Amino acid sequence: MDAETRPSADPLFRNDVLAGLAAPVRAVPARWLYDRRGSELFEAITGLPEYYLTRVETTLLEDHCGAVARIVGPGAAVIEFGSGASIKTRILLRAAEPPLYVPIDISGEFLRDAATALANEFPGLAIRPVEADFMQPIALPPEVRDRRRLGFFPGSTIGNMVASTAVDLLRAMKNSLGVGAHLLIGVDRIKDVDVLTRAYDDAAGVTAAFNLNLLDRINRELDADIPVDAFRHRAVWNDPMSRIEMHLEAMRDIAFTVDGADFEMKAGETIHTENSHKYGPRDARLLLRASGWGLVKEWTDPKDRYALILAEA
Ligand code: AVI
């Protein structure tokens, strides 16, 4: 693509890619998987038969949001971290009937669309969107101040962070929400390695397309000539780290340039693109305790694949 038709590159994306490809262990942060195409592919992943996470969490929310609402009490504001299209939120909003909903998302476009759709569906609900990176300290709108507060962080997004970052985030959530607040969080469990790897390497190749799209994005946005067909998607279980890792593996020796910088990769070398940590029951509780949250209640499915955890600050 020539310079005139190429979309202007995000300097943070350029820096992360150039630094990540030059590092001794090549890695690009997972957040860059989510351009428009990547977000569409992730949406498709959530409907795959192998990707049990969304299905199981949705059932848990349908079954237990009523109990969550009873424990938290009436009149609570619901504050969602990384709300996206607010799909699962509807289940919580229907059960808890809160007066106030605060979706927090880095994408203003997503926030505005989701808020408009929700306003039509829940006419009595006040919606106060906050456009912010929830990894940074957040000032909540003043209407939240005198209310009970229920933080909502579904989708096992916590799993995409290493433990130290997860603790920092959970602690920041506690600071934003305040003492006495509740947090409802979705956490994926450690389980059979075949089940886990299939969830991240599905038969239809949607997760492979999601991962490989990162290379297309680099080519599109950063004046690069990466031979995408020389790579394959890999999903591997890292047992000591208790996580599924996504990698892009070079299938032959290759050379390419990104924004004028030259790179070479040998056959078998990989670019690490995502971590998805899985937690046993005690690990998840420890993570919460280390961040200042106490366990209130935990719900799991009959196969113990996924946990919905209610914690209190
Ligand atoms: C967004 N996140 C919780 C997903 C996960 O399961 O780690 C991202 C994903 N990557 C591949 N498949 C799904």
From TrEMBL:
GO terms for biological process: methylation. It comes from the Bacteria. This is L-histidine N(Alpha)-methyltransferase. The keyword Lipid metabolism does not apply. Keywords: Methyltransferase, Transferase. It comes from Sphingosinicella rhizophila. Its EC number is 2.1.1.44. InterPro entries: EgtD (IPR035094), EgtD_Methyltrsf_superfamily (IPR051128), MeTrfase_dom (IPR019257), MeTrfase_EgtD-like (IPR017804), SAM-dependent_MTases_sf (IPR029063).
